[in-house]
Each structure stands twice: as structure tokens, then as C-alpha cells.
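Our preliminary data section would be incomplete without showing what the modeling component actually yields. Below, a chain of 534 amino acids is followed by its predicted structure, encoded as C-alpha cells that our downstream tools consume directly.
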Amino acid sequence: MIDLNKLNPEQKQAVLTTEGPLLILAGAGSGKTRVLTYRAAYLLEKGVPPWAILAITFTNKAAREMRERINRLAGEAADDMWVMTFHALSARILRRDIEKLGYKREFSIYDDDDQMTLIKRILKKLDISDKSYPPRAVKSVISDAKNHMLSPEEWLKDNPDFRSKPYYRAYCEYEKELKENNALDFDDLILKTLELLTEHPPVLEVYRRKFSYIMVDEYQDTNMAQYMLVRTLAGDKKNVCVVGDDDQSIYGWRGADLRNILEFEKDYGGCPVIKLEQNYRSTGNILDAANQVIAHNTGRKEKALWTDADAGDRIKLYHALDERDEAAWVCDVIQSLTRGGYELGDMAVLYRTNAQSRVLEEALVRRGIRYGVYGGLKFYDRKEVKDVLAYLAVINNPEDTLRLRRIINEPKRGIGEATLNTAQQVSDTLGQSMYRTLQTAEEYAPLSAKAKALMAFTAMLDGIAERVDEVPLIETLEEVLEQSGYVKALEAKNDMESRGRLENIGELKTTVLKYMAETEQPTLSGFLEEIALY
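Predicted structure:
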């Protein structure tokens, strides 16, 4: 039995208020995760079936932490709860019913790098200058449109100026190619879920009956699509508990709409509001400063953080003349602390953008202060990892032309861009996927010179694909590495860079084994989805 006496009065009230809509305004460090986990455990203790509870968070880390804490409170009873991010929730719903939208269940999920590759090719195809319309800007326009649930035509209607036409053309072609590749980007995961639920009422009814209790964390950072997904799932029951802090909304640049939390009471009929204002993380001086800063926010929900903790050290502010003066001051502080007995490893210097590190590093070098820069290339962004995952993606979804083009000449097989462009032209003429064209390359005169290599490549993948459901996932990966010649090509180079790439491939194997050990029914599509969402 969970002990509610471990909660303060406001936290306890939030846990016990289980029926109807509820807005919990939770200041920084006020124990909002504790409230959500206790609330879920309390519902389970009351006899609510775990599958009737949906808890939505914004990051995989937060979802894992919440599930672990609920499990510690409620035990195995929590196993069937849906505790996940918006994107994971959407992916799970789509895997079951996306065929109703004309896609196949084995759809690919494109990450930022995949999107940029596709957009660059589209701009070239449409003869749109990437100087006047940089790929990153085009991607941003498309993402912003999707976050506001605007189709290409709707976006153009809101942006009728002459300069918008190339963005519109790129957006249209981007959507067309995604569909042809049986692929979605991250914004699509939520949009397509909404489309599925609104256009197919029986599917919506299944999830409305299933989820009796919906909880949403970090509600201040929801965008329009996420807001609509919550409202759609809640239906007339409106049994929604949202937790957030309008003073901590920082994602307006990616579509977050602060009105979602500010107008929650209006949307849900004057629902109760519980404020969590006791802070358990910071000292008094820090809270006093924070309260004075956020008091200047406009259109905010009134609250004031307080703590039982001591006042603590006073806050020091240094107003630097420029970036070099700032770097010099940072070095002075570091050297002063080391003279006072602190180790360099006890300190960290935080900066907002990578460009700011150069002046700081130059100052540290001049002073002879040893340092390390953290944050380099992420594991799943490394070339060799993306290459191997692309092989698996094409085996899972042969219509994924983007990944197909990435790997067909990795390692070198004498298949260049000109051959792929010819294959694309043949495919477009016949209205079939490029993979299908490569499988039967000998039938097309323009591809005759490379037909043998093209057909050998697809035959290799087809052979692996035939056994995907019959062998453990790790064996599928091993077959890809061996039959593609990818590992052998790296081993032949035998230099430091190649050895590093081989180590990363070894780490990918470990990731597969971990997925298999932690998943009841491990599948190739399930693994690829987990990696994409990660």
C-alpha cells in the first residue's frame, strides 16, 4: 500500500483528485514526477486496470524514470501501463492500423539527417537554389507547418508571397517522396495518428474506451498537434490530468504553444487547479532570484516558489565587456578555485552555442588549464552506425529509397549516382519502387551495364529478408555485416579510423542484444522503431 504521508498537502491533493480534468502547476523542483508516479500507483491501488492509464512524457529518459518509479511503488501491476513519449505513443498506434491510411506497417521513420538528405535531393530535382533556399530553412518551414497541422496548400494560403512558392513546391515533393518511400518523419507520427483517429471512428473508439485516465507531463511545451491528440483521445470523458509550468516554457521555437496550458481551464470547463510551490532542489537565494526574474513574464499563472532550505551562498553576477573578457573571468575563477583545493574535474563551464567554445578554449589554453569538450557526434549519428541501420531498414521496408541509395555503394560496388538516377527514372516511368527496378535490372536496357551488380545486391538483401522471422535478430545483423562486405572492407583498411568504426559496430551489436534481452517479442521493425525514437 502506497504511503501518501510522504507527500506534502498539495502533492497529496493532486494524487487524490483522480476524476475529471485537473491542471497541476508545478514549479521547478517541486516534485511533479513524484506526484505523477504516486498518482498512477494510487489509481492502480484503487483497482484501475493498468492498460486504462496513459502517461505521456516528452523524453525517453523521463518515460523510463517514471515507469521505474511507478514499478517501485506498484510492482508488476504497472507493467501494462502505457508510459511513453508522444512520438512513441503515436508510433505504437500507427503500427497497428496505418494500413488504413495507405501505408504498410513496416514504415520507416526518418531522422533529421535522413530529412536533410531527402530535402537536398528534392531541391536539386526541382532546380531550387540551395543558396536562396537553404535545406535547413526548408526543413524548418515544413516542420513548422506540420506542427501547426498545415498541409502544403494550407501553408501556401497563409504565406501567399512570391518567395513562398519554392517552399511550397519542396513541401509537396517532400510529402510525395515520403509516401513513395513508405516513410514518416517525426512530425508525421503525430499528424498521421490524428488523421487515423479522425478519419476512422472505430479506431478512435477503441482507444477512447481503453484509456480512462490520461496524464501529460511538461504540458507547457505541447504544440498544436500534441494538444489535439490529447483532446481527441480524451473525448467527452475529459479525464485528463496535465502537469506543467508556464514559467518553464522554452520550446516556442519548435512550435510549443503556451496557450495550451494558460487556457486549459477554459478548454476543460473551469477545472480544479493545484499549485506545487514548495521547492526541494534549490537554496533560498536562488529561489528569490528566480521568483524576481519570472515575475516579469507576461500572461503567466501566478505562483511563488518557496523552500525550507537555508538561504545558501549569494548569487554572483559578472557583467563582461565582451566574450574575451568573459573567458578571462572564467579562467580567473577556475584558478582561484584550484588554489582553494578544488580539482579541475569538480568544475564545468556551460555555454549556449557551440560557437562560443572557441574563445573559451583559447583562453584555457593560454592559461595552461587542462579541459575536455563534451558533446561530440552522437552514437546513432555516426556514419558506420547509420550505414548498418540503413541496411536493416531496407530489409524491413524495401520501399525506403532514401536508405537504399545510402547503402547500395557502401562498401564500393561500382554503382554510382548516375546509375541510381537512371534507375529512379525507370521506376518513375513504370510507377514502381526503385528496389523493384533493381531486382529486375536486366529487363531494362538503360541499366544493362550494371544489371549484374544491381541484382546481386538486391538478391543478397532478399536472402536475408526471407529469414528475418526465422532467426534471432542478432543473426540478421551478423548476416548483414558479413554478406554486405561492410566489416571486411573496414578490416582491409586497418587504420585507426576504421578500427574505431569497427568498435562502434561492435557496440551496435551490444545494443541489439540488449534490446533482445529486454523485449518480450523482439522484431526487426521493433528494434528500428526503438532506435528511431531514441
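The CA atoms of residues 279 and 501 lie 46 Å apart. The mean pLDDT is 93. Preliminary results of this kind motivate Aim 1 of the renewal.
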